[in-house]
Amino acid sequence: MTTDIQDLMFQLQKKNDSKIVMYIADGLGGLPQEPGGKTELETAATPNLDKLAQRGTLGLSTPVLPGITPGSGPGHLGLFGYDPLTFNIGRGVLEALGIDFDLGPNDVAIRGNFCTIDNDGKITDRRAGRIASDIGAKLCEKLDQIEIPGVEVFVKPVKEYRLVIVFRGEGLGGHVNDTDPQRTGIPPLKAEGKDAASEKTAEICNLFIEKAREVLKEDAPANLLTLRGIAKKPDIPTYEEVYGLKSGAIAVYPMYRGLARLVGMDVLDAGQTIDDQMKCLKENWDKFDFFFIHFKYTDSTGEDGNFDAKVKRTEEFDAGLAKIEALNPTVIIVSGDHSTPSKMKAHSWHPVPLLLAADRCRFDGSTGFSESECRKGGLGQIQAKYIMSLAMASADRLEKYGA
Amino acid sequence: MTTDIQDLMFQLQKKNDSKIVMYIADGLGGLPQEPGGKTELETAATPNLDKLAQRGTLGLSTPVLPGITPGSGPGHLGLFGYDPLTFNIGRGVLEALGIDFDLGPNDVAIRGNFCTIDNDGKITDRRAGRIASDIGAKLCEKLDQIEIPGVEVFVKPVKEYRLVIVFRGEGLGGHVNDTDPQRTGIPPLKAEGKDAASEKTAEICNLFIEKAREVLKEDAPANLLTLRGIAKKPDIPTYEEVYGLKSGAIAVYPMYRGLARLVGMDVLDAGQTIDDQMKCLKENWDKFDFFFIHFKYTDSTGEDGNFDAKVKRTEEFDAGLAKIEALNPTVIIVSGDHSTPSKMKAHSWHPVPLLLAADRCRFDGSTGFSESECRKGGLGQIQAKYIMSLAMASADRLEKYGA
């Protein structure tokens, strides 16, 4: 019934030579340590962002809905202009993206946890004593040898007791329960499918677990595994389809490369540092219409609860902006996928600072880039999924709606 | 396809020991008497609200949609986090709630109006000369004796010519037209049902009217009645289901108790004054996670068009806040169900001042609680249905959405 912003993008997109850069500081928004104090962003010295704010328009972005704290998946889908309530990324899919596994349309991705069971098959430790990563990796190699007729099996380590399992085969559904019972003293649950295709997946899961039990029987404490977040990747239209944009992603961390790949962006060689990323941007400048540049450390320092480190990382992010501006993009968007206040040591629901700069901006009198300036900004408070339509408009890439 | 905020609350709720207090001044928002003047709230001395605003976050709440003036039902459903366009409370149901009638799932509730008909059965006065309440009450006693096979019949006076009729029985539908033709000179309309179950209700309505005609034939001017707002109570998920909150309502007026009961709150003994209400809050503090406290007089003075009285009542409301704060709730929400500007002597569509105070608020530099401060507040302008998700987040009662 209702027309989503995405449908409008499909309908109205047009092409030109403009360049759009989306520069994302993960977990950008923050909180002051005390009422009346300054946030991390307000504390940081950010001359480049402040200057850009003076010629741009500010606002606050709500990643999902008021009060809803997003994970990285919904947070980025929102930024990319996809309604994060319509497109749901399962845990298994996100884990697979996080280890650079290139998921195909016939793949079911699963997050696995090594666990410990006793002689009666009851779970005694849901994380197998948090085994070291190298032990986990060796066990994954063993599990990767398991053969199941009719499907390809991939088993890859993530970290410590965590792993990813992918089953590749025709007609597999993604609606299967977790086998982790969420407590010890009982056996893992049987996998069951919610429809015929998922029942097929569930049978494969149960068969895999049976074989894993044999393979791991001498490997205590990690003598079994549980399966969680069993899912297929969402059927999602690409950036090229939605916006007509040839798009490149420049992200150091695999999960963000994976999320970009999910919407059809080309994943470029980002290197390891922000300087590497900016070098990559410059080298690829002529090849793409749109660039997604992801900076991780404003989130990780926030999650660590380290206010000062987040301030410093924000300044590093600011320095990167100068190199983007040197390339003279038509539109620059600066924002985050969600807030990560160091006070909370976690993602939060607080709206995220947003800056859009282009020749066609309506000047809003902002003097700098901060939560308090953004609160008064000309874009108001908008859902993240509308950032891309504003960027497209600012790049003159949208036709008029209706006659 | 898209998920409503309520579905997210179902999915993401988690429990802890936090306490949330929603402190509602009915009809809180106002208008200045002259352009450039102050509203009732801006005129009132509200030291407690102002202090809370300094450590909280302000905003404006739109009860339904811009320009839409809500009745008490939709106004409160919005505050409670239920989309007032999805959940519709029929007039009959609201009238029944307003006289503390405890409606069950098999009840059809009807608002009745005594009217006057002539010898040809044509209506000559749709309100029977606005008969006095004690006369209306006596007539209701007579009507309450009417017996209809297969259903229980309840007839209760409201005020003057207004009454409530409830039919209790299996399989009764709630989709029946009003029998009030909205003008004089013609007979009342026949009741007709829109589906089989409602047709059954319509037959009962017509039979009841026939018997009422006999019972009231000597009681001119009130010698018949019309039926309006024939409805069943909406099938509405409870606060416990949606939020996992054990909730108590502290309201002096029956309609607000009824609305709270409709969403599954426990109705507490509120007494008659704001002091009684605060005493009730303190006594029940340990028994509930969430309290809804309703203050009526900011609305009734507004409806009276008495600016000064509304100012005074606002100050009384402010004084009550100190007693809430003394209990140290995790989250305090202060707002109204709609605006009632005394200049308009009526409910209005103007957005309602909103204050949310909790440790995890993002400071927005507010200096006091008023329409003009709220307009600049950090929550922006939001629909009322998002207040509860913000409160839940601020109380750390929501899981992250998506991985």
Could you describe the 3D structure shown?
The structure is a homodimer of 403-residue chains. In chain A, helix 11 runs antiparallel to helix 12. The first copy, chain A, is globular, with a radius of gyration of 23 Å. Chain A is built from 14 helices and 13 strands. The mean pLDDT of chain A is 96. An eight-stranded mixed beta sheet of chain A has the order 9-8-10-1-11-12-2-13, sandwiched between helices. In chain A, strands 3, 4, 5, 6 and 7 form a five-stranded antiparallel beta sheet that branches. By secondary structure, chain A is α/β, with parallel strands linked by helices. The two termini of chain A are 21 Å apart. In chain A, strand 8, helix 9 and strand 9 form a beta-alpha-beta unit. Chain A has two domains: 5-88 and 236-394, Alkaline Phosphatase, subunit A, CATH 3.40.720.10; 93-231, no CATH class. The first copy, chain A, has helices at 5-12, 40-43, 47-55, 72-79, 91-98, 133-143, 196-215, 239-243, 254-262, 274-284, 297-303, 307-325, 371-375, 387-394, and strands spanning 20-25, 57-62, 107-117, 123-125, 152-159, 162-168, 224-231, 247-251, 266-267, 290-295, 331-335, 352-358, 381-383. Chain A is 33% helix and 19% strand. Chains A, B: It comes from Polystyrenella longa. Chains A, B: InterPro entries: Alkaline_phosphatase_core_sf, Metalloenzyme, Pglycerate_mutase_ApgM, Pglycerate_mutase_ApgM_sf. Chains A, B: Residues 19-392 form the Metalloenzyme domain. Chains A, B: Belongs to the BPG-independent phosphoglycerate mutase family. A-PGAM subfamily. Chains A, B: This is Cofactor-independent phosphoglycerate mutase.
